[in-house]
Amino acid sequence: SNMRKNQIKRTKTVCTFCGVGCSFEVWTKDRKILKIEPKHGPVNQISTCVKGKFGYDFVNDQGRLKTPLIRKGDHFVEASWEEAIAFAAEGLRRTKEQFGSDAIGVISSSKITNEENYVIQKFTRQILETNNVDNCSRYCQTPATEGLFRTVGMGGDAGTIDDIASAGLVIIIGANSAEAHPVLASRVKRAHKFFGQKLIVADLRKNEMAERADVYLHPKQGTDQAWLMGVTKYIIDQGWHDEAFITENVNDFEAYYESLTPYTLEYVEEVTGISKAQLIETARMIHEADGTCILWGMGITQNVGGSMSSAAISNLLLVTGNYRRHGAGAYPLRGHNNVQGASDMGTLPNQLPGYQKVADDEARKKFEAAYGVEISPQPGLNHIEMVEGIEKGTIQALYVVGEEMALVDANLNQAHELLSKLPFLIVQDITFSKTASYADVILPGVPSLEKEGTFTNTERRVQRLYQALPEMDNAKYDWWITQQLANALGGDWYYTHPSQIFAEMASLTPLFAQANYDVLANWGSFFWGSNDGASTPLLYTDGFNFPDKKARLAIHEWIEPVKYDAQYDLHLNNGRLLEQFHEGNMTRKSNGLNTRLPVTFVEVSPELAKERHIESGTMVRLVSPFGSVKVPALVTTRVQQNEIFLPMHTRNNEHAVNMLTGAGFDKFTNTPAFKQTKVRMEVLHDK
Ligand code: SF4
Questions:
Q1: What is 69-137+347-352+366-449+475-523's CATH number, 3.40.50.720, 3.40.50.150, 3.20.20.105, 3.40.50.740?
Q2: Ligand 1 atom closest to Cα of 581?
Q3: Under the GO molecular function aspect, what terms does this record hold (predicted)?
Q4: What's the ipTM?
Q5: Candidate of 43, 45, 49 to mutate for ligand 1, largest count of ligand atoms within 8 Å of Cβ
Q6: Tens of pLDDT, residues 574-615
Q7: Could you tell me how far CA 206 lies from the centroid of its own chain?
Q8: What is the pTM for the complete model shown?
């Protein structure tokens, strides 16, 4: 009866935007979204942020893809699903025959469900027979995961958002959480304001949380690893480390301490620009706190030293005994609503679902038996390597699901050139994205409100979403599309509901062994985290994820940041604003959000504005070795000296920050150093 026309229907869903994972009821009447009502959300209770509340206009936007499209010369024609799937499958078959399986790459999405990510990795490994599959964590969070794998053995938040709220001290590094993770940040704001929680923020930009912090650290760009080392060394030198914890739980302490030798307070002050007094104050606050949580984001990870800095965070927590207890630990802040889930489900070139390595014979054999194919023990290509492969001719076809490569890849001029060169491109998306304009065939998927499935938030919490609206026109569930492609290429798939996909995944993935749709029904949650597959809100209670149960301190290695020079004398930082989300393909469709933030701008410090004789509104051109953009300046004390800040949200190429990025990669994960971009600024006074 709920489905009858003209009746108001209420459906539980999980927010489609950030990794906080707010859930709420959406009230709908036919295709109309009447209201978002949070009330039982285990993460958010009765809160949402402005995106969760007003960000859903894109679902009914006229620009939605409503039917499959096939390229005919320089335009697209509408096609039936039979035609489009046959055409897409034929392109893949031809490529595989002519160039081999490894000439095809697959890019999955952090916006689609766990079930859809699972079938995409299965499609890649079983049907295409390659490990060339990756997801957008390659752009953002892989260095954090790498730092955690190296030190504590699992790539997820150590505890829950409740743990963050109950910590004695919260340290936020390189993350604009008040705007990018608003509901989580509000928990910290409340704990700080009313319950005596201490707050340290380290960031290039004085964001809202930095304004509130007890201590605000402003390191020179790319030097976070140095102050983390310096503070850790000072803590050990004072005897403030947790010796009992280290003896019981941690390997490599001596060698690690050795590697800190150069990081005296004097040296760190020189390298980072953070005063000795502030370094000591930070160390003292960690020492005195009843539990420290460190939260970090892309200000750490999107740097050439992203993995090393992430490991440095984990090292500091290990040395001070801030793991294996509530109100403590490492918390990488996942950006997209399902970026955690995409990696959990194995859309990674080196890992099967649940972080089982392709190189692990036992794990691989299990999947080989289930899928009836051989799986290579060699990792496939990551996103960056796939794009490079287009240039080399080793990648001949890509299947891109929901990823706006043509706006979010670093060095966009090059990305556009390579996408236009690629012999065969399948794009599956909900809108006609910039990337879709390069496609040979476009397959229309559906957004979260039009499907069932599960998402996994930043604290490893898996939650179900139910279908609130019918699929728009001829658009289809993303898992259905992948299944059609698989079957057109000889597969034998017969899923009729995401619950079957989840059950298959759980049967092959120890971390999810005890998870199922019943546990997750309605407002239920499951936290992955134990190899016995039980729900595990707090990680490592049974020891760290290594055979001897002991953590490994990562020996420090200094990674030199990207340097400015005479030609490119400014450091360009970038990030999110509250009202928009990423490249804007969803949030730019919302009038409620656009009126709050109508134009793009570059933030310029008062010092720099004075030196260059500009004021708010002056047009400037930013020029990097890779491209240029023209934007108005906004003079603000949020940024200092020669550091400027460009929001990442864009309506078109003109403002895309990624026309400028491309200067380097994290050494261990190939993540682009988006945050380390050197530019010069030309003032266009007459414009
Ligand atoms: Fe959605 Fe994140 Fe806002 Fe919650 S905080 S409503 S998950 S965007």
A1: 3.40.50.740
A2: 8
A3: formate dehydrogenase (NAD+) activity
A4: 0.98
A5: 49
A6: 876 665 555 666 665 666 655 555 567 889 999 999 999 999
A7: 22
A8: 0.92
